[in-house]
Design brief:
The complex is a heterodimer of chains A (187) and B (798). Chain A is mainly α and 187 residues long. In chain A, 52% of the residues lie in helices and 0% in strands. The chains are: A mainly alpha (187), B mainly alpha (798).
Chain lengths: 187, 798
């Protein structure tokens, strides 16, 4: 492999390869995608580890994310400041977890965080309602929404506290046949 | 100082006991190791602290404390200003919950072992079961396969060996050296061992760090520390006699890891059509893309099979065998020579095609050919068997990989709403039209489920439903039987046609046309009949696939039986022709000597084109399969062209001047028929497997077909199809199709094995001509080429 790139040091690239599921080529490609979002903000030289954050609006406009109803939550979960403004490392992290190679448990952990709108480490009724409304674009009636959320809690709540903890969620999601194939972004 | 050390020793034992209790049921060896490591770390933490080790000590402290934390809900101690509380707490919770969640999963012994291999220093052993399973998943997933496990195994082995060596060295150095007290001795030896443990654990952490749900920054820092620690102490550990060897081994391990990583990088770069599939995926969702991924996988497998066949059978015959025209089997007979170049004859795979490397009959039965003494007949047989062996191995390996991904076969109704809510959105969608469709279908699906839920209380008319289902099954069985009989009838007719000469194009290709038409017409027929049954869509899809499978299978086997009849006819014919050709040879020689009036000279051999040829049944079978495959290709391409493309063009352009909205109403644009296409692919592969033994060129034709299919279908899907409206899909479809493929593999193995074992090869064509049975070539090789004792061994075994 040609070592002609000057964006990262070799150690940085190796470290990224150890910390994500990406190969060297993919990491460089991801860097190009990151930079394309805002060429004037992102320097070409990352060897000195500049502190560059891209605002959420740019991330949310990526073709892979722009149609996703949960893009805001995804960006918030993976960004350091919790607001959706992502550094390159957050960016790599996000796509690494959402890639094909990430294991089921890791994905389940992050899925839980994404659907937890109020960040209280539980999926309570309001979280479920927000999820459902985002999924159906508010097409269901209030009664229907309420009914579905109750059913979900009925089905998945194991410790009977009226809300889904991470454990309940994981127990339910690892049995889902479609989870790995839908919770996946190819980049 | 001594007192402290005592306490440390006691601590070690306590920890070891705890750990034994904790890990009950796990490997004892790992247990003791871990226990010692844990106690060791803590001991070191509290014992003397050389300044240089300060940082790393804290790290190790954190590690064991983290393990304890996992058991007792204590938050992991933070190092200054690096992390958020959030991450630590969640990190604690996640593995803990992952542990409990993982404990409920069904995991066999294999998982246990691999779990231990992948255990890492950062968290408690049980606590990281989630991560370990993740580690196992990670290993199994594309592109990163051997890395972690290979690394771990390599490191484990290294460290085990080194540990033993270390202990020996330490013992010897201890007894040799002049020490003040025994305690100091044991400390240095124990310390060495503990150091080893730590290094090993750090290495494991490095290998599995990507599975941890931490922020990237934190991972990077941990990674850096772990790497520095390993680098610093790995050198220090190699002392005394074994130092150079140890250092060398460490260097080789590093180089090996680097090589593996480069190789993986290279391999993933080689995977073709990644962009294309991504485009299809973002427009149509993951289910349609799964067909293309399957196609790509088949292409890879066929490429390997083609490599085997081509490299080991075709090339040797072409390069080292006798050229065309030198012996009878390689020459077009005089009678056919006039028409041998005609396009129509070539299209039927007669003429020059028939007497070429494409088919069985061309190959010579010389035992060894060329300078290298290449044993062609043996190689032919071995490649034929190896084709099946390799395919079997690859299919099973892929099934094993997919089995993990598919998740459990949960009851249909266990988590319906929860799954709908959390797994129905396809994150791969990158197109607003598809997204709109998806929103609509999700909404519809929720509404349907709500209605179902409310209607569940209602009383169903069970008897009517059962009657309808029985009726539907009867109708379908009838149509299956009907199609089987039709094929048999057509094959019989084609045998009659073979004797006539004045055939229209239809009559010549009747068999293939009928088979392809059946494959086109019956599935929609089954679907319509299935409406009577009123099943849940997922179940209905499975029934549909099962029926189509039965249809194709029935057709294929009827075809085979009819073919067998033909083969037997040819075998009878052969007996007669053999006598005739011997007689003709004698006559030729008699003529020749009469002409020259000289009975002493040996006449030259009869010109190859004049020799009376036997009805080489293997080539005939090969030709049938090739014709079937080619017509299958033609029909499928035509179907796409007419069924999808022409339809799309008509709908688009006629819409301007038509009374109702063509796009929304009747014909509209087609949806991509995933199951039909996948089944077509699977059956095509079955035919290839069956025919490859008799027509080595068939695999090459298939490779070309798959390659062109990829481009053609990608274009067709993007240009003429619309995304599906219904949101369901066959849940574990991947493994279901692999299972079908496996079944077809066995079913196509049977006829080939049967013919190899029972039917005698033709007397004048192919690599086995002249032998009573095809596998006699193996016996011959054992007798002549292998050492004598092996021959007696096999004869005892046989």
């Amino acid at each position: 492999m040609g070592n002609k790139q000057t964006i990262f040091t070799a150690q940085q690239l190796d470290a990224y390869q150890d910390c994500t599921y990406f190969t060297r080529k993919e990491i460089l490609r991801l860097f190009d995608r990151y930079r394309d979002l805002a060429p004037q903000l992102v320097p070409l030289d990352y060897t000195c580890q500049p502190d560059v954050k891209l605002p959420y609006e740019l991330i949310g406009s990526m073709p892979e994310l722009k149609d996703n109803p949960f893009r805001q939550r995804i960006a918030e979960v993976f960004s350091e400041d919790g607001e959706g403004n992502m550094t390159l490392e957050d960016f790599l992290d996000m796509f690494s977890v959402l890639s094909e190679m990430a294991p089921r448990d890791l994905k389940a952990y992050y899925a839980f965080k994404i659907y937890d709108f109020n960040n209280d480490d539980f999926l309570c009724k309001s979280d479920l309602e927000k999820t459902l409304n985002k999924l159906t674009r508010n097409e269901l009636t209030e009664d229907e929404v309420r009914m579905v959320c109750e059913k979900v809690i009925d089905e998945a709540d194991l410790d009977n506290d009226g809300r889904l903890s991470l454990e309940d969620f994981q127990h339910m999601i690892v049995r889902a046949p479609d989870f790995l194939s839908t919770f996946h972004i190819r980049i | 100082m001594p007192r402290k050390r005592d306490t440390d020793d006691i601590n070690i034992e306590i920890e070891a006991d705890e750990s034994d209790g904790d890990d009950g049921g796990t490997n004892k060896r790992t247990n003791r190791r871990q226990g010692a490591g844990r106690g060791g770390a803590r001991g070191r933490g509290r014992g003397k602290k050389p300044a240089s080790e300060d940082e790393d000590e804290d790290d190790e402290d954190e590690a064991p404390r983290g393990r304890r934390g996992a058991n007792k809900k204590k938050p992991v101690k933070k190092r200054g200003g690096r992390n958020n509380d959030d991450d630590d707490d969640s990190e604690d919770e996640a593995p803990k919950k992952g542990r409990k969640g993982a404990a409920k999963k069904k995991k066999g012994g294999k998982a246990q072992d691999s779990d231990e291999d992948d255990s890492d220093a950062g968290k408690g052993k049980k606590g990281k079961k989630g991560g370990k399973k993740g580690g196992k998943d990670e290993e199994d997933s594309k592109g990163k396969k051997g890395d972690a496990k290979g690394k771990d195994k390599g490191k484990d082995k290294d460290n085990d060996k080194d540990k033993k060596k270390k202990k020996k060295k330490d013992d010897s150095s201890d007894t040799d050296s002049n020490t003040n007290s025994e305690e100091e001795e044991s400390m240095s030896e124990g310390e060495m061992a503990r150091l080893m443990e730590e290094v090993e654990e750090k290495k494991k952490l490095i290998a599995t760090i990507r599975n941890k749900p931490w922020r990237m920054k934190r991972r990077l820092v941990h990674l850096k520390e772990a790497q520095e620690f390993v680098d610093k102490f790995e050198g220090a550990l190699g002392k005394g006699k074994g130092r150079k060897w140890y250092a060398y081994k460490v260097m080789m391990t590093k180089k090996w890891i680097k090589f593996q990583r480069d190789f993986e990088n290279f391999r993933t770069a080689c995977i073709p059509w990644e962009r294309k599939i991504k485009e299809v995926e973002s427009h149509f969702g993951s289910s349609v893309a799964s067909y293309f991924i399957f196609l790509r996988w088949m292409y890879g497998m066929n490429l390997v099979l083609f490599g085997f066949t081509f490299g080991l059978v075709v090339i040797p015959e072409v390069l080292m065998g006798l050229p065309y025209g030198s012996i009878p089997r390689k020459t077009v007979p005089r009678a056919e020579a006039d028409t041998a170049q005609d396009y129509s004859v070539l299209m039927d795979f007669n003429g020059y095609c028939k007497y070429s490397v494409l088919f069985y009959g061309y190959y010579n039965n010389q035992r060894t050919i060329g300078l290298l003494k290449f044993r062609l007949p043996l190689s032919y047989l071995m490649v034929g068997i190896g084709t099946f062996g390799y395919s079997l191995m690859v299919v099973i390996r892929t099934m094993a990989k997919n089995a993990d991904v598919g998740g459990g076969d949960g009851d249909e109704g266990e988590f319906t709403f929860a799954w709908k809510m959390f797994t129905s959105w396809d994150y791969l969608i990158g197109n607003s039209e598809t997204a709109d469709n998806k929103y609509a279908s999700i909404t519809t699906s929720f509404k349907e489920s709500i209605v179902d839920e409310q209607e569940n209380q209602k009383d169903e008319n069970i008897h009517l439903r059962r009657f309808l289902r029985v009726l539907a099954n009867v109708m379908i069985t009838c149509s299956l039987g009907g199609s089987g009989y039709l094929i048999y009838f057509v094959v019989k007719r084609s045998q009659e046609f073979a004797n006539r000469d004045d055939l229209s194009w239809y009559e010549k290709n009747e068999l293939e046309i009928i088979m392809s038409l059946l494959g086109l017409v019956c599935p929609p027929l089954f679907e319509t009949i299935a409406e009577l049954e009123d099943y849940h869509p997922r179940i209905a899809l499975k029934w549909q696939l099962g029926r189509i499978f039965a249809l194709f299978l029935g057709n294929l086997y009827t075809f085979l039986f009819a073919l067998f009849d033909e083969v037997n006819n040819k075998l009878e014919e052969e007996g007669a022709i053999r006598n005739a050709s011997l007689w003709a040879m004698k006559e030729y020689y008699a003529n020749y000597t009469r002409m020259l009036n000289d009975s002493n000279s040996t006449p030259p051999p009869m010109p190859p084109a004049d020799v009376i040829r036997g009805p080489c049944w293997e080539t005939a079978v090969g030709i049938e399969f090739v014709k079937l495959t080619v017509s299958d290709i033609q029909v499928s391409y035509l179907t796409i062209l007419i069924g999808d493309f022409a339809r799309a063009v008509i709908v688009r352009f006629l819409n301007y001047c038509w009374c109702w909205d063509l796009e929304a109403g009747f014909p509209s644009y087609g949806e991509f028929d995933i199951s039909g296409n996948v089944l077509g692919l699977v059956f095509n592969q079955g035919m290839i497997w069956m025919g490859a033994f008799y027509a080595p060129g068939l695999v090459g034709i298939n490779v070309l077909r798959l390659l062109s299919s990829m481009y053609y279908q990608c274009w067709a899907v993007m240009a003429t199809n619309v995304p599906h409206e219904r949101v369901f899909k066959a849940s574990k479809s991947n493994n279901f199709y692999m299972g079908l493929l496996l079944l077809i593999l066995f079913l196509s193995l049977l006829p080939v094995v049967y013919t190899i074992m029972t039917l005698p090869p033709s007397f004048d064509c192919g690599p086995f001509s002249g032998k009573p049975k095809m596998f006699d070539v193996i016996m011959e090789t054992i007798d002549l080429d292998l050492p004598a004792f092996l021959g007696t061994l096999f004869s005892y075994a046989a």
